[in-house]
Amino acid sequence: MKWFDYAAPDSLEQAAELLARYPEARPLAGGTDLLPQLRAGKRTTPLVVDVKKIPELSSLTIDEKGALTLGAAVPCYRIYEDERVCARFPALAELASILGGIPIQGRASLGGNLCNASPSADAIPLLMAMHATAETWSTSGARSIPVEDFCIAPGRSALAPGELLVSIRIPALPPRTAAHYLRFIPRNEMDIAVVGVGVSLTLSDSVIQTARIALGAVAPTPILATEAAASLENQAPTAAAFERAARLAQQVTRPISDMRGTAEYRRHLAYVLTRRALEHALQAAAAS
Amino acid sequence: MARVFIPSLLRSFTGGSAEVEANGATVRELIEDLEARYPGIRQRLLEGSHLRPNISVAVDGEVSPLGLLETVSPTSEVHFLAAIKGGMAPSMGSLSPSSAP
Amino acid sequence: MQKKMHVTATINGEVQEFLCEPRQSLLECLRDILHLTGTKEGCNDGNCGSCTVLMDGRLVTSCLVLGPEASGAEIVTVEGLARGRELHPLQKAFLEQAALQCGVCTPGFLVAAKALLDREPQPSEQRIRWWLANNLCRCTGYDKIVRAVQQAAAELAATQGGMNRL
Amino acid sequence: MSTQSYQVIGTRPIRHDGVDKVTGRALYGADIQMAGLLHGAILRSPHAHARIRSINTSKAEALAGVKAVVTAADFPPTGDRIVDLGEGETPLSYIRGNILASGKVLYRGHAVAAVAATSPHIAAEAASLIEVEYEPLPCVLTAPEAMRPGAPLLHEDLKTKEFGQQTDRVSNIAEHFRHSLGDLEKGFAEADIVLEREFHTATVHQGYIEPHNATALWNNDGRLLIWCSTQGAFVVRDTTACILDLPVSQVKVTPMEIGGGFGGKIPVYLEPVAALLSKKTGRPVKIVMSRKEVFEGTGPTPGSFIRIKIGAKRDGRFTAAQADLAYEAGAYPGAMVGAGAMTVFAAYDIPNVTIDGYDVVVNKPSTAAYRAPGATNAAFATETVVDEIAEHLGLDPLDLRLKNAAKEGTRRADGLKYRRIGCVEVLEAMKAHPHYRAPLEGANRGRGVAIGYWFNAGLPSSCTISVNADGSVTLVEGSTDIGGTRTSVAMQAAEVLGIPAGSVHPVVVDTDSVGFTAVTGGSRTTFATGWAAYEAAQDVLRQMKERAAKLWGLEPSAVRFEGGHFRASGHEISFAELAARLAETGGPVVGRATVNPRGVGGSFAGCIVDVEVDPETGKTSILRFTSIQDAGRAIHPSYVEGQMQGGSVQGIGWALNEEYFMGPDGEMRNSSLLDYRMPTALDLPMIDTQIVEVPNPGHPFGVRGVGEANIVPPPAAIANAIYRAVGVRMRRLPMSPPNLMQELWKKS
To answer: Which of A22, A151, B4, D181 could form a disulfide with A221 if both were Cys (CB 3.0 to 4.6 A apart)?
Structure first.
């Protein structure tokens, strides 16, 4: 690994200043993506900025409206060990508990997973389904980016040079709403999603009021399947409706073939997982 | 006389026979006797005065660590086997000299 | 200018100071600087678990932690499991259950299993497998490892979670 | 074979090296620290096949902290020789070529140059500064591709051998051989059913957790000292001496603790490179591979193409069998196809058989042994065809196997007759096992069985045993201990000496300190080194009887040893008591033995597996698994079970997910433990075991090697279970979710 320097600023201002001064600097939260990339020579950097000492990046708060603000460096275990998150955002807690193994969850954060901008990132489809926004900070101020607009290419995010992800904001779930993330991996743990699907459903009386469907590892960035989601609105949550939505979701995929699966296989999984994720979400929403 | 089993790729020397008989108190003597009966076969089994490195000999069902020096009785069964490369016995450390010219 | 960093950390209960390059991982610091070679490198990218240690009570793969990040942290490695001459119940159980063959993954498994039992003293087989899924063993097929953790859990329960819980 | 009851054998003592291994004190190769130590790094080829036009090391040498750079040009000028390292005649250029490429690179990951520097980071950076100009060449990646006329040639000088005889045919087929028995045509003519099937298996890696490592110090007295992780210190000594053109006595190898090998740590990769770097710098040099280097630069086990044809009578009796086995040797000749040929029909008594084997070079890493090398590929093919025959004939798959099972006196296609073997006993134990008859309910679930064989190795082992005055003994051996063999060897000495296992202190030493000992491999250590310990203990007893006789003024022949005591009429002294009196009766007692045993007993293993397939994703889950194996005599049953469980799980990994996923350019796309996907604890149930004991008449305690046969049956058994679950016959490994889904689509 090429030499780099290390700094651990304790305020947003200091961090932003460092990032402005060294545009090639890399923020370090859990390091579970960054360090292997630096070792493999996929990325180089003159400076690693450890952001875990910045209060805004390490806090987990729920405001009076029930929205969750998740510091970009909050490690997964803090999410699933937080009783409030488990009660109000169970899908998020479950996601945090399947991201890597236990030692990875001791370090890795959803913010890091987002910034890594991998097409197969587990967190992104669920965050998209949950209407999450990425809250950023730079010397020119703060901005809020919808998660669905955050990834622009494999490994590339919408963050401008010198801009830091501070937190992820997830609005409170309306009543009778549930989200669910489902991925396919050949092993039962320690694997990268061949396909991942995040969904959310809001029920109203006997029909689906709104739905959202996002897919990972089927295109250069995680994608929203808007038509598929729209097809569910004001429909009864039947197997046929889910089947139709899953087929529509499958149509927007543009997968590649690689060591994790062929394009054909991924397209097939997109259908299977969308259907199954919707069924899971329906059960959870009906129970909530 | 000992029964000698001829591997399929050497059967051209024995007129296609898979099994022949030969005399000898050791494998070395047995090969000399085989050569007298089936000229040319020795050269496929020996290199100079040694068993070819790719060939091992089994007497009565046991691959012999002694090779040519192994004793043979008139009731013995003798097999010449293509020694197997990689992962098999000979590759796992032999007492052979570290290099041959 | 390339300068080493000064790090102070509590390692297996003792305050240690050392100098490291920012690019050196905690694993490298433990092994090459502090000579705590019980923590092993198997993959250097967080996927085998051989370098698992406790950092402020949390399991981490030390290959994915930079040395300077350990500043002020409390680290426990396999060398810190036994209390003096008394082996940790997990260490005893691994020996009694023959839960190791080559032994190179064993330190990581022991630390991971300790973290589990510290949190969940009576885990189910499935919870044990879940917690150990980040630790690869190529020799044992995991059967005897899972049994060893079950045995240690039973022993710890019998001793009321007291003396032997380090 | 004695049928007496044993005091030590069959018990489960704590292993002698256990405390060191659970406290982190045990020293493995990468743990070596020494004054002045430099760190090495290796530059590897980015091409699967290319000519090296030039190598420029000047930028690397100029980097601060770099002490030396070496390439193949640094080998002594004696490369144009044919050598024999026990692998048969091999050009030295091949052996050296795999250490540091010369002229051409033959696989992606092929070592080209190496650097020694003051830190591993500087060494790695320097290696990346070495400029190599390549002329890329077309590559061939599979055996069928490489065998095609006109295929790009890896070695322009490689001529096909037929039964060791060189022909004039230049090709990628290094060797072709044939075993034949009976009359194949007649046998197929007699059959009521003949099935012929083709199989492909992917390259897989042993996957040991500890990467390769080596530290070398070319000392000022001219001796080369090496510390490394190896299955055989003497193999490292002999190979390194050969490569560097040194007398063997000038090389001393100290085997460190080894973090897994499974056959993959028999070959030498780093030691000669570390030695050359040490020679240039005058300092010790340590090289440790990264995981990526382990995948790309060491020897996995061959991928293969196999065609199997079996004929059977309506009653299930096999009349004829034919196999074509083409195994991918990787860059240099030496695939495990010979062993594949020996084991492909080894479980069966078939009168008419022909087996053709092809050793084929391809642009992949040079392959190495992997637990029963060659046998798993072959059994995957045979055992799934046997299952299909059972289905066609409406027979129970175990009954069909029992009807044809090999037994004492069965002649194999390579000509040899079996001595006492446990094939029938293993099959009967499978049939009688509650798992085989347990109900298996639920959709998409199925049960499969298969059996496998490994013949095991003998080979030389040496031991000495010194008696200590406190009644314990010190046992010095040359077998590196990968999975508890210190204990299984010590237990055999303890049994002879009538002392507890804990009173034997086993130590594994360097090549200067013990007689020649072959590798820990071939399931031979408990068998052969255990035998050496048995003989050395007998030597101790003989000498101690003389001491007892001296004490009592008797002839040694009057002294008996029984139940841990030396006895003669009116006299009795325990082993420990006599040990305390050695000084006064003539001085120390040291027993010694060296063996090169015959009497190797092959081992059969079978497994029963229940799976559930998700028909929408193609993912297979293992619900229940039982491994049954003939151990001859289980010395330490826990470690026998451990071998069975470990081998079974490696077989499960091979079956379901493991593969070298190669791009068309010869790049391995999944060279990490994330994407190579070995099984985790969460992917498995408990692995039940049943040890069958059919004592090997060739060993004093009846031992058969148990390390390997257990990996052989799982892929076939899982394929058979998948068929029962979802109705598709898998003939390609791995049976990964995308591959299984492909077959499910074809079916629907």
So the answer is: A151
Which class would CATH give A5-170? alpha beta
Parent domain of B39: 2-84
CB contact under 8 A, A186 and D737: yes
Interface test with D, best of A187, A243, A276 (most D CBs within 10 A): A187
Domain ranges of chain C: 5-80, 89-158
User: Which of D84, D248, D335 lies nearest to residue B53, judging by beta carbons?
Assistant: D84
Please check whether residue B18 lies inside any domain of the structure: yes
Assembly ipTM: 0.96
Token pair for D159: 């001529």
Q: How confident is the model at residue B56 (pLDDT cuts 50, 70, 90)?
A: confident
State which fold the D304-456+601-747 domain adopts. Answer: Aldehyde Oxidoreductase; domain 4 (3.30.365)
C55 forms bridges with which residues in the sheet? Answer: C58, C75
pLDDT at B91: 36
Q: Could you report how far apart the first and last alpha carbons of chain D are, in Å?
A: 57
Q: How many CA atoms within 13 Å lie on the side-chain side of A26?
A: 21
Q: Are A128 and A212 in contact (CB under 8 A)?
A: yes
CA–CA separation, A275 and C31 (whole Å): 49
> Average pLDDT of chain D?
96
Does residue C29 belong to the interface with chain A, where contact is any CB pair within 8 Å? no
Residues in C closer than 8 angstroms to A8, CB to CB, are 68-69, 71
Task: Give dist(CA A63, CA A167) in Å, integer.
Answer: 14
The domain C89-158: what is its CATH number?
Answer: 1.10.150.120
Q: Which residues of D touch C142 (CB under 8 A)?
A: 645, 649, 679-681, 684, 687
Residue extents of the structural domains in chain A:
5-170, 177-287
Please tell me which residue of chain A has the smallest CA distance to C51: A103
CB contact under 8 A, D737 and A188: no
- Which class is domain D32-137+210-259+265-297? alpha beta
Check pLDDT > 50 for residue B95: no
Instruction: Classify strands B2-5 and B77-82 as parallel, antiparallel or unpaired.
Output: parallel
Q: Determine whether the interchain pair D258/C102 forms a contact, defined as Cβ–Cβ distance below 8 Å.
A: yes
Superfamily of structural domain C5-80: Beta-grasp domain (3.10.20.30)
**What class is the A177-287 domain?**
alpha beta
